[in-house]
Amino acid sequence: MIRNQVITVRVQLLVILAVLLFVSLVFRLYHVQVTRHDELLKRAQEQYTSTTKTSGKRGEIYDFNGNLLVGNIPCCTIVADPSEAGDAAQCRKTAAILARYLQLPEADIFKDLMDKKRDKKDTDGKENSVPRRYALIAKEVALPLAEKLGRVLKVEKCKAISIQNSSKRYYPKDELLANILGFTNIENDKTIAVFGIEKFFNRVIEPSAYVNHYERSRDGIPLVVQPERHALDGVNIYLTIQEPIQSIMEDELDALVEKWHPLAAYAIMADPNNGNVLALAQRPSFNPNDRAAMDPQAWRNRITEDVFEPGSAMKPIAISGAIDAGVVSPNTRFDCERGHWYYAGKTLHDSHPLGILSVAEIIQKSSNVGTAKIAITMGAPRLYNTLRSFGLGQSTGIPLKPETKGILRKLEKWDSLSIARFPIGQGVAVSPLQLVRAYCALANGGHLVKLRLVDRVANPDTGTVIHNPIEDVPSIYKNPTTHQKMVEMMKRVTEEGGTAVKASIPGFDVAGKTGTSQKFINGQYSTNRFFATFIGFVPAEKPRLVLLVTVDEPKNAHYGGTVAGPHFKAIAEKTLQYLNVMPDEPPQPTIVKPQPHHSAPKH
Fold this sequence. Notes:
This protein folds into 2 domains: 54-118 and 126-210, Alpha-Beta Complex (Penicillin-binding protein 2a (Domain 2)), CATH 3.90.1310; 243-286 and 307-578, DD-peptidase/beta-lactamase superfamily (Beta-lactamase). The protein is built from 20 helices and 23 strands. A hairpin with a 6-residue loop joins strand 19 and strand 20 (465-467). The radius of gyration is 36 Å and the shape is elongated.
């Protein structure tokens, strides 16, 4: 009886123990299969799955007519899967092969291949060691070298190394437009846009990437677990720039630098009818394909970042406000005081002694005294509103960053001298782009067009093309006769008796203005450091282009008509020929007078 009771108790204990074990197993299975399912599945997959990352092609940049300015050269990226690289002997063998073909330190590659684990936090925050599946060995490897290396790796059975197709950025025109296009760098296997068009449009130029996952069998053969998908390319950018005109400009800018040895120089050309920037360049510049000794000061975009006092190039802008308001006419006369006028405690000088001149002659002879008297006649509020209406003190909105707003003090901060100095281009500062935009308005009847650097963007995957719209803006002028009056007066600047006869183009009427401005250094105007400028439009009556040439600290001369004028002529004349613009009138042939014949003296 007692024995049966003992057996019964033992059986009951075994049953209870079995139940407890079963319940424990159920809870354990629930915890593993449900609570930690995602975590454990992921860890398991990391043991037998791999990933490959594919990236589309970075968008390319073209000129208006489809000439390639920035492209991509096919190349390869060499990567390793350290978890599959084998033991130390195999890793050393693989490292030796890679080092020999890629010209890389063998020790560094060996260290990378032997680094087979990485720490990763799970969902509970605990750190776990997982296989290290990716290590970058080399980037931008030329295709022939990569193909040769691939064959060697296959023969030597180095399964841990993969060669992936990629591309590197290439600038086929070298220095052409370099400061505007910008460039990219590769940092930590990622493309970084540094500045220029490359950076401003990086979000749309940058391609998308896609990660494909696959399982591996025991012998390393990939078994795709989902349909392979491809990344999308970035969009292509088409600029308003025309490469032939850009080449003309850059060649002439090089000639300018060779002759005048300036600190810097700028040239910008725009179509005043639609705001299209046709060409723009600066010196110094750089070659984005060769950055071994590249000075950041050379690739900084001075055209949007720098400001300078425009000097007499400001005069037509200011005087147009007086003409438009009816305060003066082209024939209104002012006493220019023989080049010396005392006003508000300071003496204002002209470069030459001038007497009584009409408004038209004041522009032609570039009288500071006459312009100041016109400004005083029109009044400070009207002068300020005129300068603002031409875009001074405001960014142009061109797609390049950073862009300066220039310097134009608010009216309430003007002093007694401001009204006599601002209209002659002293005490105000503009960027080269601001001045070009203002002269587009002078050329096209007072319409302050938005400067366009990008004409359209194209999606290579869908074929969609989106055009940058041309904005229709009202005229600054209230008087319909203002435009023609200003054009007629500005034409006289390049005619006989004007300050820029060297900017004249045979057969064409050129309207423009010189600017010679002292540099403001350490609180005072320098007596030997200048900006020399000529800006104008041609043909004057039906302008096809506005062109600015500015030279920073030229040597041996400093007047805008002497330094910048001839280079304006050279660029504009060649561009008109390229655009097939017919002359206003046929150039007059040069008449060579016959020389009298002198017989030899008789002895």
